[in-house]
Write a structure and sequence with these properties.
The strands form two sheets. A seven-stranded parallel β-sheet has the order 3-4-2-1-7-8-9. The two termini are 15 Å apart. It has a single domain, classed as Rossmann fold, CATH 3.40.50.180. The chain is 31% helix and 21% strand. Helix 4 (133-141) links the parallel strand 7 and strand 8. It is an alpha/beta fold. It has six helices and nine strands.
Length: 187
């Protein structure tokens, strides 16, 4: 069964791999992509503008109660946890920090996985804490497709290493092979 969404989580060192993936993603692919990146709150960011310059998708920062649509690349807003509701709409939450972060990659991965089960495709990239490891494990347990960035390639390998430590079901791929996997799976 084909996934309904691609989720990409990361923190320190994840920005350049995200851009590489977007630049080399086959133009025929239009499955929704959701990026959960640890970002500074209360600062102006050109994150969405830079993403738009590197993809054929329409880039949009997520708004509460917005329906997820094909052809869009969504970014989780700073200082909000991201959840998916059963009606395929996003939900934003300002509850406490999880793993020192809001948005928490774990919260998003777990929420999407509980709604979509095996129809999730999750990628966990570079980062300097354990956020995302538990959520990616939940996704793998629900038979979603899960990938971690090659720990020897990741600028900050703590995130992918944490995911690898608690679950051995994830594929460990370098950026080039992540791109090839996405293009083979969805084009």
């Amino acid at each position: 069964m084909k996934p309904k969404v691609i989720l990409i989580g990361g923190s320190a060192g994840a920005f350049n791999p995200i851009l590489s993936v977007l630049k080399q993603l086959d133009k025929s692919i239009n499955i929704p992509i959701v990026i959960i990146l640890h970002r500074l709150k209360n600062t102006t960011s050109s994150f969405e503008t830079i993403l738009q310059q590197n993809t054929h998708y329409t880039v949009k920062e997520i708004e509460d109660k917005e329906e997820i649509k094909k052809g869009f690349l969504y970014s989780a807003p700073a200082d909000y946890h991201l959840l998916l509701e059963d009606n395929m709409c996003f939900s934003l939450d300002a509850s406490e920090l999880i793993n020192y972060s809001r948005p928490s990659i774990d919260v998003a991965f777990e929420s999407f996985s509980m709604v979509l089960r095996e129809k999730c495709f999750g990628i966990l990239l570079s980062g300097s804490n354990h956020d995302g490891a538990s959520g990616l494990k939940t996704m793998a347990e629900n038979n979603g497709i899960t990938i971690i960035q090659d720990c020897t390639e990741a600028e900050f390998p703590m995130m992918p290493k944490a995911a690898k430590t608690i679950c051995n079901k994830h594929k460990e791929l370098n950026t080039k092979n992540i791109i090839n996997t996405l293009n083979n799976e969805f084009s």
